[in-house]
Amino acid sequence: MASAVVTPAFIEAIRARLPDLRLLTEVADRESHRADETAYLPTGLPGAVALPTETAQVVELVRICAEFDVPIVPRGAGSGLSGGATGLEGALTIAFTAMDRIVEIDRDNLCVVTQPGVINARLKAAVAEVCLFYAPDPASFEMCSIGGNLGTNAGGLCCVKYGQTRDSVLSLEVVMADGSLIRTGGKNLKDVAGYSLTHLIVGSQGTLALVTEATLRLRPAPPARSTLIAFFPTLSAAGDAVAAIATAGVSPATLELMDRFTIRAVDDMHGLGLDRDAAAMLMVESDLPALAADDELARAEAACTGAGATTTLRSRDAAEADLLRQARRAAHWALERLGEVKMEDVAVPRSRVPDMLRAVEAIAARHDVRIGTFGHAGDGNLHPDLVLERGDPNNERITKVVQADLYRAALDLGGTVTGEHGIGSARVEWLEAQRGPDAIRVMRAIKTALDPQGLFNPGRVLP
């Protein structure tokens, strides 16, 4: 593992070889690149922060770091929730925020070529202007970057139908640890030449290569979404409805869940008139054309009613549907108004969602802690948010205990300790518990082969 730190000689080498590069060395500037959005996580102060604008600068930075044995932390917008882009003491952070050009929107081949610093919402808006659609849809889409999405294989509200970020990536341009530059594919929808390096690098959180450009799959823009809201007397009933919707063969654009605690927090924040006495709410969206959407939501409604829904409602127009969607996106921030919040990210097979919801309730009761649960129930990905009293010195200890119980429950149900946020450094000690020692050995072999000096994001992902 690269073990040197940024020194005056290192800084001098960068400035001599990259005179046009913006390099931050003041303590205040470096402090602003220390943390991401992960709570209760120790971080280091970067020795320097580089803000490249082009691939050639990234290549040269990697070569200089290799010469001086200085580790590199790649960073996007800093909105991550796994500690994957937090500072390492004395290391070089490469922030990709200035590499923010949308290079090409190719309508003929339904793809877009983009640099990693482009914000997800900006990319969506740009392709929407030519009636195209970029599917990956994290709740933080207005602040997270494409590079960060690629690093964590980000999910979001549309995963149940369109998959995670990886499913929309055609090709990457990446800088390897030896300073070489490779492309992992092209604009082809089908390409099975050699190993799938694209799929290996997406989700590796900057531990195998640095992404400097991505070719992403687009789709024709779908119609405005229609929305169904269903309220349930118990969390288990809502979980049963999720399983019933899947069994019925319904493929909604989104299938989202909020528990009572979250419903009330969101309703307090937005004044939507939600059923505050319901134990759970499901939001089901269809992006099919009008008649097909009516049929899809009717089948989803029947599944909800069969599972015990007390009330079902349809959005009256596109504006109302959008308001409900934005309210769901704001669930985490609504809970943050009530205390210190630690968001978790577990996922289980869809048929085990009811079991995981029951497990969360039991864990909250056992530790006498408030947990607001929401998430992408359609693909089994839940976000139990611990809501703690502000300033309580026991918060970090309580968080670790509850976190461990949540992870064990998910693993016992055949699930995962992270559905979309990534292992990073926050969950690194749980990777072997999920994958096993032989899988870790294989991962280490890949890491060593591609990054023998351990330059790229050391200590992240692999324990």
Précis, in short:
This protein has 463 residues and is an alpha+beta fold. The protein has helices at 8-17, 27-31, 55-68, 120-128, 146-152, 159-162, 197-201, 235-247, 260-270, 290-306, 318-329, 331-336, 353-367, 395-412, 431-435, 437-450; strands at 22-24, 48-51, 72-75, 92-95, 102-106, 111-114, 132-133, 169-175, 181-183, 210-217, 219-220, 226-232, 254-259, 280-286, 311-314, 340-343, 346-347, 370-376, 381-388.
Label this structure with key terms.
463 residues, alpha+beta, Uridine Diphospho-n-acetylenolpyruvylglucosamine Reductase, domain 3, Vanillyl-alcohol Oxidase, Chain A, domain 3, eight-stranded antiparallel β-sheet, 36% helix, globular
Secondary structure: elements and pairs:
Blueprint: H1 8-17, E1 22-24, H2 27-31, E2 48-51, H3 55-68, E3 72-75, E4 92-95, E5 102-106, E6 111-114, H4 120-128, E7 132-133, H5 146-152, H6 159-162, E8 169-175, E9 181-183, H7 197-201, E10 210-217, E11 219-220, E12 226-232, H8 235-247, E13 254-259, H9 260-270, E14 280-286, H10 290-306, E15 311-314, H11 318-329, H12 331-336, E16 340-343, E17 346-347, H13 353-367, E18 370-376, E19 381-388, H14 395-412, H15 431-435, H16 437-450
Parallel strand pairs: 2-4, 3-4
Antiparallel strand pairs: 1-2, 5-6, 6-10, 7-11, 8-9, 8-10, 12-14, 12-15, 13-14, 13-18, 16-19, 17-19, 18-19
